[in-house]
Amino acid sequence: MIPLLDLKAQYASIKGEIDAAVLGVLASAQYVLGDEVARFEQEFADYCGVRHAVAVNTGTSALHLALLAAGVGPGDEVITVPFTFVATVSAICYTGARPVFVDVEPSTLTMDARQLEAKITPATKAIVPVHLYGQMADMDEIKAIADSYGIPVIEDACQAHGAEYKGARAGSIGLSGCFSFYPGKNLGACGEGGMAVTNSDDQARTMRMLRDWGQEQRYHHILKGFNYRMDGIQGAILRVKLRHLEDWTEARRAIGHRYSTLLGGSTVVKTPMELVGRRHVYHVYAVRSRDRDGLRRVLNAEGIQSGLHYPIPVHLQKAHADLGHQAGDFPVSEEAAQDVMSLPIYPEMTMRQVEIVVETLEHAYVD
Ligand SMILES: *Cc1c(COP(=O)(O)O)cnc(C)c1O
Question: Is the distance from the beta carbon of residue 88 to the nearest atom of ligand 1 less than 6 Å?
Answer without folding.
Answer: yes
